[in-house]
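TL;DR need structure tokens for one chain.
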Amino acid sequence: MKRITIIGGGASGTLLALNLLRYDGDERLEINLVEKRTHVGRGVAFSTDQDSHLLNVPAAKMGAYADDVEHFHRWLNECGLEKDPTSFVPRRIFGEYLREQLEEANKSKADNVELNIFDDEAIDIERHDGKVAVHLMSGDVLYSEKAALAFGNFLPPHPTVPDQAFVHSPRYFQDPWTPAMFDSIKAEDDVLIGGTGLSMVDVMLHLHQLRHQGLINAISTRGQLPAVHKLGFTYSSFYDEIKGSTRVTDILKTVRAHAKNADSNGSDWRAVIDSLRPVTQQIWLDLPLAEKKYFMQHLSRYWNVARHRMAPEAALVIDELRGTGQLQILKGRLKKITWESGIGFDVRYSTVGLDQYVHADVIINCIGSESRFDQLDSPLVKNMLNSGMIACDELRFGLDATPDGQLKTADGKASDMLYTLGTALKGVLWESTAIPEIRVQARDLAQKLISE
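>> reply
TL;DR here they are.
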């Protein structure tokens, strides 16, 4: 009998389980799915219940299956949710879709396949008599031949200011997705949002829906908002021109030239960026470590703006709020945050060498998911790092692993039992956090786990 344990029942873990449930071999297969959240399939990204929180990928490209990318769009129409293929659908609907797909796959699986879902938290993993022993918070231990760490997004790191006493304030929210947050924000509160990316956009859309009246400031080092999707354009691949390149500046020069060419030939720069998506991982793998570090330090913010775009509907709201002056985008580095009960937060930040000040009644952290695994407040991750079963990658942007998800130990050896996919592979693959990439990883990893 084959036994495989998946730790994490968000999108990554669900997609992996979906592919394992397709197993049609003769041997018995037992799949254990461990998820501490109430609902499997949602994770952080798709657990929202707000219709204002939209997918950042059009419906026709969000299918759960690598061999059927339009499946989600067909499912929408079959459910009576008639949507254009280019629609940006509320994320909660995609969460429902993943949950239903898992239920249907479990019903239609072969008789020799069993799915066990554990409403529990994995706190440690060890090798035991040639098997993987997964220790759960409840005290139970799951034994299997293979295990996959399907981590999703983690809480963002606190702002890097010297005195972090402010984090203990009940009006500072490290988790921008906590349901209680909006219940405690008064309509007239002045709000400061750390970060100007897609999480900030989500928070802004919800505040707008609640008819928030207070001033809202959003701050980031560059003060840049995500670009806006513009669909309907294509651009031919130019990968041959940058294939095997080992200098980021050479790649950047080529991409800029094609972006200029696209704008002057009836296409759009967004299509140029999208044409790189199938090969982004290979481009990243070909770069030396020093070039990857250079990119992360100097160019990654610009890439994120161009690559991780917001829906046009979201952009209209953001533009409206900026136009009225209710939303202001600040550029600078946070230097000091102080909090006094009944008064609020006084924030000092630096821009072009000058100190600026802003007051807030509420601070919401939208900096982005913590990617330094050695900084995570996770019993499982801490125990596995301490035992040397896993290690951070060289960039400290995820876990050390082979490109196909085989985790490496602290001494650099590829494990024969432990695997991962999704966010943990960002340092290895760079492009590894969105459904179009994760569904391919899920398919390939499922095949690998079953064949081994």
